[in-house]
Amino acid sequence: MLFSLYIKNFALIQELSIEFRPGLTIITGETGAGKSILLGALSLVLGERASADLVRSGTTKAVIEALFKDVLPDKINALLNAAEIETSPELIIRRELSASGQSRCFINDSPCTASLLKQLGELLIDLHGQHEHQLLLHAETHESLLDDFAQSAQEVTTYISVRSSLQELQQQVKKLQREAAELREKKEMLDFQLNELRSLDLKPGEDETIETEITLLENAETLFTLSTSLSDLLYDSEHSVYSSISSALHSLEKLASIDKRFENHIEEARSAKSIVDELSRFTRSYSSNIDFNPGRLESLRERQLQLQRISKKYSRPLSGLIELCQDLDAKVALEENLEEEIALIQQEIDVRKAELSTCAVTLSLKREKAAHRLETTIQEELKELGIPHSTFIVSITHEEELEGEITIEGKTFTAFARGYDRIEFLISTNPGEKPKPLVKVASGGEISRVMLALKSALAESSKLPILIFDEIDTGISGRVAESVGKSLKRLSRLHQIIAITHLPQIAAMADLHLQVQKSVQEERTVTEVTPLDHESRLQAIASLISGHQISASSLTLASELVEGARSV
């Protein structure tokens, strides 16, 4: 509920603080006293557009602060958490407007945008001004309102889930179809590249192997000469290393037989002899196996050039060419299998479409039944509110589409986000008039009463905790005024209601009565708001009956009206 409202330096308001209560709050006051200023301040703190002209002249800034308690914690907490604003059991929203036109917004003392403030305001209050586009005048809201009345949340959830699944499958098919189309366009090129790479019979590391073998063949003579020379030096010549080490080992063994200190080095000499022997055998074998093959060398050079050309053509090394060949092979194979995969998913899509059609029909039937109940309820409410010849229609239409996702009796229809229904509330308030969309109802007083009838019918399902009606009594009096007051009173048991009125029958229903007055203080006009006690309230209601000259009979009638309101 709206718990309190603080206003400073806003239009004619110097400074005031108002505390509200649950139930029905009535605001009265003479024309021009500032009742609209009060609602203007509330609209501003709820995120409406601001103007520097609203700052009280002679001051630097206007401040409006509203305190709310027990207000849709789940939805509001989700909105605030998304904006990284701290939440608490109480909700404080503040708007500051400077004389230069700059505006600052705060939620729970955290700075925020006017856009976020407006989103929050739409979750808190439904303000019905006589000339405003109200929530219920927007056709896009009628669907959710009818679903609330029909209690069809489960059917809507099921429909949304199936539609989401269908859309995912359709996206998969579109993606595969794009890939298939791209592959078809590139097929000739893919085939050419794949055949070219396959014909080369590429092997991992082949380029390095070829380079190594070319180096050996190009240096065959040098290798033979050096290895033969090394073999002579190590073993074959008269004064070879092997012969010298053998002689040294013989001398070392003689020395060790005389001096034991040489024994430790005998094994080292024997090891050296073994190493030289092994190395000499390797060099003899190596030189005997050297390949003098100009033909092989030429073949390797041609292969190397072939690999270099293909690497340059595709701007990839040999390893990259092998990967490319594998990728091309996979793409060609994919193109061959895509149509089969698309066909399988398409079968699943057909199943989902059938499920979606069933869900859409189930939801639509439930809506139609609820629509008939709602039409009757609204028309009965309007009769009580002084519009006896009204016709209220919940229009449910469908949009045929050549390739729609909803199929019913051989026809296909568009699948909207929450069903295949297009829902709009239509009304005629005078006999012989064709029902029209609510937004085209011309009379402000009729709009207010239609809104009140709708709110009464949807009271238990509506998610907006606070309803404000500005001049709901336009064009009514007498019995109708009493009916409007009773309707507001009943509605206030489910919602906090704030209403501006000029009629005593409505004012008498108040749980809290606020009087707006305008006075001159220090040669400046000031608007003030006063909560009325029982006696002052009777005076205010009596003045609505008889004007400034309050008579005993008007006071008596005021008392009777207040007493009668207690039985509502």
Commentary on this structure:
By secondary structure, the chain is an alpha+beta fold. Among the domains are: 1-129 and 470-568, Rossmann fold, CATH 3.40.50; 182-333, no CATH class. The protein is 55% helix and 18% strand. It is built from 16 helices and 17 strands. The chain has helices at 35-45, 73-82, 114-124, 139-150, 153-199, 206-218, 220-236, 241-258, 263-288, 294-314, 318-384, 444-457, 478-491, 504-507, 534-546, 552-565; strands at 2-10, 13-19, 24-29, 61-69, 90-98, 103-107, 110-112, 125-128, 391-397, 406-408, 411-413, 422-428, 436-437, 466-470, 496-500, 512-521, 524-531. Strands 2-1-4-5-6-7 form a six-stranded antiparallel β-sheet. Strands 8-14-15-3-16-17 form a six-stranded mixed β-sheet, with helices on both faces. Helix 15 (534-546) crosses helix 16. The chain is elongated. The two termini are 22 Å apart. The model has no long low-confidence stretch (mean pLDDT 87).
Name the CATH homologous superfamily of the domain at 1-129 and 470-568.
P-loop containing nucleotide triphosphate hydrolases
Residue ranges: pLDDT <50 for 5 or more in a row?
A: none
Query: Which CATH architecture of the domain at 1-129 and 470-568 would you pick?
Result: 3-Layer(aba) Sandwich
The share of residues in extended strands comes to: 15-25%
Output the radius of gyration.
Answer: 47 Å
Assembly of the depicted chains: single chain
Main-sheet strand order equals 2-1-4-5-6-7
Number of helices: 16
**Structural class estimated from helices and strands:** alpha+beta
How many strands in all? 17
The CATH C-level name of the domain at 1-129 and 470-568 is Alpha Beta
What fold name stands as the CATH topology of the domain at 1-129 and 470-568?
Rossmann fold
Described by strand count, sense and barrel closure, the largest sheet is:
6 strands, antiparallel
Helix content: 40-55%
State mean pLDDT (0 to 100 scale).
87
Q: What is the 3D shape?
A: elongated
Distance between the termini: 22 Å
